[in-house]
What does this fold into?
Amino acid sequence: MSAAGGGVCVRVRIIGIGSPSAGDDAGWRLARALQGADLGRGFADGTVETVLCGHPGDLLLGPLQGLALAVLIDAMCTGASPGSLRLLEMEDLVEGPALTSHGFGVARILALGRALGALPPRLILYGIETGPPQAMPAPATWVKQCAGVLRAEIRQALGRAQGPSV
Amino acid sequence: MTTTREVRLCVPILARVEGEGALDLVVQDGRIETLRLRIFEPPRMFEKFLEGREYSELPDLVARICGICPVAYQMSAVQAIEGLFGIDPGPWVRAMRRVFYCGEWIQSHALHIHWLAAPDFLGYESAVGMAQAHAGVLQRGLALQGLGNAIIKLLGARSVHPVGARAGGFYAAPPAEEVAALRARLVAALPDAEALIAWAASLPLPASDQDFISVSLRHPLDYPMNEGRIVASHGLDIPVSEYETHFAERQVAYSTALFADLHGRPYLVGPLARMNLNADRLHPPVRAALARTGIVFPSRNMFHSVVARAAEIHQALLEAIGLLAGYRRPAETAAAAVPRSGTGFGATEAPRGLLWHRYEFDDEGCVRRARIVPPTSQNQGRMEEDLRGALEALGLDKEEEALRRRAEMVIRNYDPCISCATHFLRVRVARP
It folds into this structure.
């Protein structure tokens, strides 16, 4: 379990996945915007953390350890209109070795995590349809779509252990 | 009556390797007619991007070449800069760079052993398939890999493409309490690292006996990592600056990566080459753990690379523990740099082997020309040579599936790092 400053344990982690230097930045942009939306308000400082994760995907398993809730945000390629935000299930992911680093894409690493019993009890996955930069909406649009759901999920995940302090 | 059999094997995309490559194999009448390790990923022209950049930008720029071994790129670059500018970074920087590099070896080797290579030796398609029968092994691998990442983050601020290194030293020194906490975790992991050597040696590794040239750095005292002379198993012993006198890169039509030769012959770099040339520099507990396996280095079995990687994890843990003992934050974390024109050379031991850099700088310290020779390029010729030997040893009359499996096993055994590629989720959308 990872500890934030002052010994507080991170229980919820919002993980933006991407490779911005290669033009794959949608996951990071939404994660950053969610950080600004302060979804952890009302809970002890450091309980809810936002991290930006690049490939390789194998590094994902570490940040997933010891959490009550993980929120993964990554780019997706489904043919939907660019910038569409979609809540996905793990089963929606298709493994594809061709374009992933060391063959470790998000789908593979989640499957491995599940097989090892290393995933958090609740895991939410958001996909953002890729597209040309000019076709992508401002991250605030995505935040508007998902913040309510995420606040409720965080409340539920943390509610069992600690209630809001305000 | 004579019978003819033709086997045409095409592995269009190699899985569990970094980047995009393929293998073409044609066997005609029991003889290998064509064997091509095709790297088809477009060239990245990275050296060209570096031209015109200031020396101070190099460590962060070259770290972007690889998500698995960014520290190696940074360390070869700073060595080249400091050699030319006449910078002595001092003992604290030297020690911390070594620790930094240990982190990279631990994470990269743990990744390769557990997630990339082990499924081949144990007969699984991937580590996911291994998880049920070998959960404890994979958990141990995950923990070791996490420790390696934690070391890189300690000195580089983040574990992928770290940003802490600079010419002359580091941008910042970690607080003593963070170092002490991490060091305690490293000490606690020693039994796991030792057990990993025994486990790697117990894998059903194919028998193999090949004659090849091993090339690595060699240091007067230490197991080679970020300094030393370039040596080869057939007697070469040269300073880093003389690499181009003896080693030549050549282009082949079917690969976008260059092949490298030593005096016209393929050669091996990487953990097995390092071990073959430097086993006498290992810490005694690593030597003892290896002795218990019965595997002797130098080894001519390429599959002993996985054992060498496990031994290097143990070595790196011990090294980092020793270097972090009695850690104190220094008054200065980097020596000052005064640019000068000329050519600087750097070579360090990336997890996958020798990584050689050469930079020409102008008076302002801007890069005029750059040349980077990564380990995978150096190993390409050896991989093809190994494939021929391994497939002939297996028997070219075997079924295509058996040949394909062995060929992939051979290639992955080198942990080739073709390049980093951007990624997308591939999603199956059911539409009503």
